[in-house]
TrEMBL record:
SUPFAM superfamilies documented for this protein: alpha/beta-Hydrolases (SSF53474)
GO BP field: acylglycerol catabolic process
Molecular function via GO: monoacylglycerol lipase activity
Species, as recorded: Williamsia limnetica
Any one GO cellular component localisation term in the record: membrane
Positions of the AB hydrolase-1 domain: 29-270
Protein name: Pimeloyl-ACP methyl ester carboxylesterase
InterPro entries listed in its UniProt record: AB_hydrolase_1 (IPR000073), AB_hydrolase_fold (IPR029058), AB_hydrolase_sf (IPR050266)
Length: 284
């Protein structure tokens, strides 16, 4: 396993829409890792435990999306600006095409890129979060807790949300809580959270969807032409595993791997099994 540290791997890239920050490690073909959303999230925190393994065979890039307190914020909805930031990033570094790993929101970004710019995504790995709720309530328990925190942040609400992210509550350490809290109160991160998960934004989004003729992104997943690995925690309380049914059926080259005793953070809670499954998939 390659030894990867925060300071040695961090990079900055100046673009025409501000600075994009990222972590870089390893050598070989490129691999782009996209983080999820939620209080205190960053690409480094999502993938710091996996980067050393993937860096053995790939030139890894962990991109920090605009508006989450690391890369410079830009105007627009966070999911849309995240997608455009990936293309800006790839263009600036001369990466024509690469496999993409996306956690939750990062998976949605990856799916949208694979639909709209199929020549840029050679393979896709998603970690929960992709598709509609089929049998489970929407919003899910985890998203409701996230909304409660976003509307009025405090540490107790953060702990309740973090606990819903995992199967093993022992993973929610004092160190994790403190790390996430300090990052969650960043003004850019708070603004992004309000746009995505605040009660007012959610109500507006529901009204827009009811009145709009634009189909939801997941209904276009039949256009994802690249090989796709859907990974899911069986005990995911943020994006329950019934959500996997639609992408598993619609994406022509999709396969699904469900990890037992695992919540939303598959890459953390099922670390070794996840790395093994993804490594085999990418090496084919």
């Amino acid at each position: 396993m390659v030894n990867v540290t925060y300071d040695e791997s961090k990079r900055e890239l100046q673009t025409d829409s501000g600075v994009l920050r990222y972590h870089e490690a390893g050598s070989g073909p490129p691999l782009i890792l996209l983080h999820g959303s939620g209080p205190g999230v960053t690409g480094w925190r999502n993938y710091r435990g996996n980067l050393g393994v993937f860096a053995e065979n790939f030139h890894c890039y962990v991109l920090e999306f605009p508006g989450f307190g690391v890369s410079d914020p830009v105007k627009g909805h966070p999911v849309l600006t995240a997608g455009s930031s990936v293309i800006r990033f790839m263009d600036a570094l001369g990466i024509e095409s690469a496999p993409v790993i996306g956690n939750s929101m990062g998976g949605v970004v990856g799916v949208n890129l694979a639909i709209k710019k199929p020549d840029r995504v050679s393979k896709l790995v998603t970690i929960g979060g992709v598709g509609p709720n089929v049998f489970s309530p929407s919003p899910s328990e985890g998203l409701r807790l996230l909304q409660e925190f976003t509307d009025a942040p405090d540490r107790d609400k953060l702990v309740r949300w973090l606990t819903a992210m995992v199967f093993d509550r022992a993973l929610v350490t004092d160190e994790l809580i403190e790390e996430r809290w300090e990052a969650a109160i960043n003004p850019d991160a708070q603004q992004t959270a309000q746009m995505m998960y605040g009660s007012a934004a959610f109500a507006m989004q529901q009204e827009f969807m009811a009145a709009s003729d634009t189909p939801p992104y997941w209904s276009m997943m039949h256009k994802v032409s690249c090989p796709t690995l859907l990974t899911w925690g069986r005990d995911d309380r943020v994006s329950p595993p019934d959500m996997a049914m639609v992408p598993m059926r619609l994406i022509p080259q999709a396969e699904l791997h469900v990890f037992p005793n695992c919540g939303h953070w598959v890459m953390i809670e099922a670390k070794r099994a996840f790395e093994s499954a993804v490594g085999e998939f990418l090496s084919r």
